Amino acid sequence: xxxxxxxxxxxxxxxxxxxxxILVAFFIVLVFFNSSKKExxxxxxxxxxxxxELSREEYMRMKEELS
Length: 67
Known about the structure:
The chain has 3 helices and no strands. By secondary structure, the chain is an all-alpha fold. The chain has a domain of 36 residues.
């Protein structure tokens, strides 16, 4: 009288699988967006240095902080 294993875990057990994949997708998106923000900040810093808005010391200090 087994019903395909649902007797043991119930329907709620399958929600953990869905939750797992949602968390995996969330962390992938999180890593992707964080890396693109870092590149954007460095690009902005490079532009400011190229325009002469920053001294070499300021540029190097800020670049080190972003890396």
